[in-house]
Structures are given as structure tokens and as C-alpha cells.
# Entry
Amino acid sequence: MALPFFRQTEVLAAPDIEAASLRSDRFRLERETDWKRLESIVVCLEKNRLRRIADEDLLALPVLYRQAASSLAVARETSLDAGTLAYLESLVRRAWFQVYGPRTSLLGWLRRFLGGGWSAAVRALWLEICIALTAMIAGTLAGWLLVARDSDWYYALVPGEFTDSRRPGATREALVESMSGTQDAEGLTVFATYLFSHNTGVTILFFGLGFAFGIPTVLLLVYEMASLGAMLWLFASAGLGWEFAAWLSIHGTTELLAGLLGGAAGIHIGRAMAFPGNRSVLAAAAASGRRAALVMAGAVLMLAVAGLLEGYARQLVADPLSRGAIGGTMLLLWLAYFLFVRDRSRGAGR
Amino acid sequence: MTAAVAPHLRHELRRRRELVTPEGLSLPLTVASRGSRAGALLLDLGIIFFGFFLLGIFLTVVGVGLFDESPEDAGPAIELVLVLLILLVFLSRYGYFLAFELGPRGATPGKRALGIRVAARPAASGSGGRLTAEAVIARNLMRDVEVFIPFAFLVSGELGSGVMGFAAGVWLLVFMLFPLFNKDNLRAGDLVAGTWVVEAERRKLPAAMSLAPKQRAPAAYPFGEAELSVYGEHELQVLEGVLRHDNADAQRQVMEAICRKIGWQAGHGDERAFLEAFYAALRARLEGDMRFGKRKKDKFS
# Structure
């Protein structure tokens, strides 16, 4: 039990073991210097001060941890000192969290994430992506058809901030004007940042709502896309369908793809909870939640790109052809990434 | 197991869980109470709001009038401040909890203050796993639906407006009340991420109890078989608490109670010495029995 080898670095004075009259206290006094050494290492780890830990301490950590754990097991059966038992329990628990803590740094995680973890998670969600895509297409069609039958639907479907000049009955000139870019970049950063934070909020909502078996996610996807369908109808009926598509696509391919992934992630959780298979619901939810979180982290990244494209590129590039080209290129890049970047180190998707 | 728990921890027994580490050791965990989790959340939200409050005062003092002009015709400095503000709001909503829970402590400042942390929920077999970055991301993405959106909903006052408002309110309530209806106090985010929140307070190693009587003459109190067979482990640990807190009145009361029970005449001025001697003798006896597999839970058994 006692490890004389590791005692070399002790700074604490060894307690007077013979002074204790109880056997269980002698047991404790024999080991408490090791416990305190373990505690000081754990404190450094908790404070993320890895440099302050001596090499021999770090090497001794697993041994000290197991020693404290077995001390706890022995103490539970031989000692009635509640203070010592509580201390040992808390020490072993804290040490366990550090010994079995997350092993990668944020940078390492990011590299694995971009190097295949993300695309693997996206590919694993292919079925949910198909469901979400269907919902989005259905939403767009529904929006279009509703507004085509009765233009009053437009005000119900499209949020107020977009109904300034873009309303049924607006002149073609007003609609063209609403899509025009600006010449200088002033104020665009604010716009881009705002768009990013707003869109990310909506996408995270897609994810969060998936918890209720995915149904609210599907409904929200349909609703959001219905307003797009309504606007599409408005511009198409003014003969501006192609210009609107180009105006939308410059950031829209990235943004809609991110929304699609967010929706798919939400549906994934809902599906796992509704149909857990031969796992328990809790286990199925946890496994799907972690995979969906990977997809979501990527979707947030995409939304940052989309926000920049929307805030800058769309306002600075006015030509429909170049707008369409940028949007199409982005779409191809994302698809190529998802389909062809393979996970080299296995286990990233866990 | 029950008897090995100090009396002040008794009420926590219901929240106790066992976790089996990869090397096969059983590790006791206590699931954080709903109260401490709610308190931690409020504390964190308070920190965020207070931060923005300070920032607002700072900006006013510096003289940045954010809302005087629209961003289109504002100067580049104002624009920068606006961008930073939007990003800050975004980060405090999504990044604050994420960044702190990814750290080695697995806890936000609020959680740390209340001595709790996030951990990976063990599998059905009880074997514990690592807390991964994905799990922390997942549980904090769900926080949006559970905390921020209901809050915004309440503030916006849409709660009473129509059937839709009512339905949405009920629906959000399901998320908010979720932790009340499962034994591990999981919120929806914990369920989805496979995590839970457990107690992780730091304890100091208290002094060994049997060291103290050394200074005085031992065996001043000849406790015999009859005196020591009255009490059990529970009473021993209550006595330990009394000795550690070192309150003269409490010691007097306990001493009188013990003397009444064992039929001795309580003296004056030697409360602590008496209790220490009684504690050491009782513990020696109970621990001796323990080694032979005989445990006496409390005075009734």
C-alpha cells in the first residue's frame, strides 16, 4: 500500500502515526500525505495550470488515484470517521473527473471536427436530411400556392420587416430597388453580425424543438419556408423570378443548407426518442444528441459564413449572374465537403 | 451503506448514485438537487446581466450614444461597438455556458459556487464515461429552448394572447418542468446529451479524532461494556459533528444526554474531555466489531 518510492517529493511533514490511539486513524495517518499530494495535483488540473505540475507528480497521478480509491473502499469497511470518509469520497470523485476528463484540447477537437468528424455525422443523418428537405420543399410550395390563391396570405406568412416595399401589388421598380446592392461597405458589418446571430438562433431552435419527437421542428421548417415561397411568388409574378433566386442564392445556399442541417439534427433526436430500437430511450437520445450536436456545431459555422456572404457579398455584388455563381459555388463546395471528406481517425463521431 | 453516511447527509440518500469506474471501482455520486441547479442558473444569468449592466454604464460614461443614430450613418467606431455588442449578446447566450462547461471543472461560475458540475451520465451498467465536447454542446444548445426562449416569451407578454400564445406557453412549460419529473433531475438538455449534474464540492481533510486525547491522561473515564453498548454508528457520527464544531453549549447538552443514558453523574468543566474519551472508546468498540462484520447502525438496532 505505502509507496516509499513516491515519498521522495513530499514536502508535508509526516504525521505522528503512533500518537493515534485508533487503528482506523492510524490507517488514515499513514496515507494522508499521499491523499494531500493527489489533492494538490487535482487542484492544479482543475485550475488548468498544467505547467505547475511536476513531471513525477503527473506520472504518479494514476497510482495516487487508484491508491486513494482503494483507501476509500477500505475506509468504508473499517472506519467510522465521517469527516475522513466524506473527504475521501470528494477527493476520489474529483480525481476521477480529472483522470477521465476530456482528453483533447479545443484546438485538437476542432481539427478532428473539420477533418471528417462533421462530415461523417452529416452523412449519418442522411434520412433525416431527406425528411427535412421534403418539409422545406413542401413549405415553399405551400407558401407559393397559398399566396397565389389569395394574396392576403402574404401578410400572414412573411414577417413584418420584409413587407416594407415588398408586398403584393408593389411596382416592379420597387421590387428591383429592394434587391439592389450598396456601393460602400459602411454599416454592413453590423448587418452581417446581426444576420448571423439571428439565423443561428432560429437554427438552434430547429434543433431544440426536435426534442418533442421532431414534430415542432418539421412544423417550423414548413412555416419558415412558406414565407420564402410567398416571396418567391411575389417576385416571380413581377417577372423577377431569376433575379430573386440569384439575390437569394448568394448566401441562401449556405444558409438554407445550414437550416436543413439544423432541422435534420432536430428530427434525428426526435426520431431516436420515438424509435429507440433495442436501446433504452435515454441511451438512444444521448447517442443521437451527441451526433446531432456535431452537425449543429457545423451548422453554426456555416451560418457565420452565410452572414458574411449576406452582409457583404450580396450588398456589394449587384449582378444576378455573379450572385448566382457565388451561391452555386458555395453549394458545390459544401456538398463536396460533406460527401468526400472522410474520417481518417475513427471515433470522431462518438 | 446507509450507516456509513453522516447524519447531515441523510436526506441526500435519495439522490445517491453509484458509478463504476473503468478499473472497476465503485464511486459514490450525489445528483445535484433541483434547488441548487436552479440557483446556479439564476446566478449565471445574474452574472451575465450584471456584466451587460456594467458595460452599459461604461459605454454611457465614455459617451457612446448607441441609439442616437441609425447604424447606416454612424461612424466606424460606433459600428465597431455595435458589432461587438451583437457578438457579445450572442456569445453570452450560447458561449458562456459552453466555454465554462468544457473546462476541466465542468462547471460555470454559478455551478461552482453551488458545488455542482456537469458529468457524463453512466450507462445502464453503471460504468462511467468521459464528458465529451459534443455532449456539452448538445446540452447547451437545448438550453436555448428551455431557458432563453421561455424567458423572452414571458417578457414579450404573448402569454395571454390567444390560443396560440397559450399553447406555446404550455409547451414551453413542459421543458421548464421536465426536471421535476425524473429521478435524476435531468433537464431536456441532459437527456439529449447523455449528461447529468452531480455534486462536486471540495472538502477539507479534518483532523484525526483520536489524536487529541493524547495530551490528557488516558483512561480517566473507565467506560465498560455496558456503557458502550448503548449507542450505534449514527450516534457516533453525531458526536463527531459536535466535537468538530466545538460549541460549549452543545457539548454540555450532549454530555448530559449521554450521562443520563449510561447512568453516570455528569460533572462540570470537563465536557470536552469526557466527550472525546467517550467518542474514542465508542469508536474503538464499533470499529472493532466492524472488522468482524458486525455493524450497529444506531441505538435502536
Notes: The first helix of chain B runs from residue 34 to 62.
